[in-house]
Amino acid sequence: MTPLTQHPGNSTLKGMEVPLNPDMQAKLSRLAAEQGRNAEALIQEAIARLVDYDEWFLREVEKGLASADHGDLLTHEEVGARIEKLIAEKQTPR
Asked: I need a surface site. Which of 9, 24, 32, 59 has the fewest CB within 10 A?
């Protein structure tokens, strides 16, 4: 099986095969059937979510590192206070 197909001189992916174990194939087929969609559409959506999340996460890490480089850090006490505030907000009925 060729895991990746590219055209020479072109870094754009044209096709890709990802082997799935039988259990994952069964889950994917079941989920697709329940949603009335095909498995390929579900896979493409899942990959898009994963890639978007990873891009966001890496941007956030870079922002955090830049803040740390500039000395924008919280003390242990400030972190504790923020956590306590968040917990209190979650416990307050709306």
From this structure: 9
Whether the Cβ atoms of residue 75 and residue 61 lie closer than 8 Å to each other:
no
Which residue has 């990802």 as its token pair?
Answer: 18
Return the CA Rg of the chain.
22
- pLDDT (tens digit, 9 = 90+) per residue, 50-83? 999 999 999 999 999 999 999 999 999 999 999 9
Rounded to an integer, what distance in angstroms lies between the CA atom of residue 61 and that of residue 20? Answer: 31
CA pair distance 4, 92, nearest whole angstrom? 52
Each residue of 30-51: pLDDT tens digit?
999 999 999 999 999 999 999 9
Residue 32's CB: how many other CB atoms inside 10 A?
16
